[in-house]
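hiii, so i know i said id send this last week but things got crazy w the move. better late than never?? heres the sequnce for the chain we talked about at the cafe, plus the structure i predicted for it. fair warning i was half asleep when i ran it
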Amino acid sequence: MINRRKILQLGAAASVALPFLEANARSLSVAEQKSQAMKTLGMIGGTSWHSTIDYYRYINQMVNDRQGNRVNPPLLITNLNQLLVNTLQAQGMWKELTQIYVDAGKSLVAGGAQSIIFCSNTAHKLYDDVSAALTVPILHIADATGQAAEDRGVRKLALFGTKYTMESPFIQQRLRSTYGMEVFTPNAAARNELARIIAEELSAGRIEDDSRAYLVAEMDKLKKRGAEAIILGCTEFPMLVKQHHYDLPLLDTTYLHAQMAVNFILDTQ
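okay and structure toks below
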C-alpha cells in the first residue's frame, strides 16, 4: 500500500514519483492475485527429457496466452533416470518401477503439488497403482486424447507409441470404455521398428528423415484400415512428425496432456 501522506511530506520531487509507485503497486497486486489463483502441478518427467521440455514449454506458453505474458504457473518437476526406467521396463520389473513413481509422486505432493502428470504415455501402465498410493489426482493422458478425438468428431484411431503402449491395454481400453473409440495398432514388425526409433533416435534427440518416412508409411496402412485420426502416443513422436506431414488429424498427446494440465492449473476444466 502506498502511503500518500508520507510521499507528500517528502516534497515535490518525491510526489512526482507517486503515480509511478501506485502503478507498480497495482501491477504487483494483479500479479499476486493471478499467482494465488493458480494450482500447483507436479510433473514426473525425464522419459525422455526432450519431451519433458516440450511439456514445460507448452504449459508455460498456454498459461501466458491465457493469463498474460510472464505469468508463469507453479510447477514442480521430478526428472527420472530414463536409463533405469527403460531397464526396469525391459526386464518386466513393473513393481519396482511403480515404487519409483510412487516415491516421485509423494515427493511432489510433499512439495505442494495438487495434481500430478506423468510426462509419458508408457508410464500410464502404472496409473492405477500409483493413483491408489497418492492423495492427489493424476491427470490421465488417455482422457486428454479421448476428449480431443470427441471434439474432432472422430471415433476410429490409429495408435502409435512404445511397444508397451501399443501392446498393453492401459491406453486402448480407456479410450474404448470411456470414449467409445475404436483403436488400431500396427503389426508386430512395425511395433519393433518403432520401438527402435524411439529408443535409439528420439530419446537421444535425433530426428531422422528415414524414420519419419517409415512412420508415415505405417500411418498410411492404418488409414487404409479405416483410421480417421492418428494418436502420437509416444511423447517423442511429435518431435518427428508434425501436422503438415500428414493429411489425417494428428492427436499430439504431449500437447493435449499439457493442455489438460493447464486447465487444471487455472481451474477451467
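btw Residues 2 and 22 are 6 Å apart (CA to CA). thought thatd interest u
miss u guys!!
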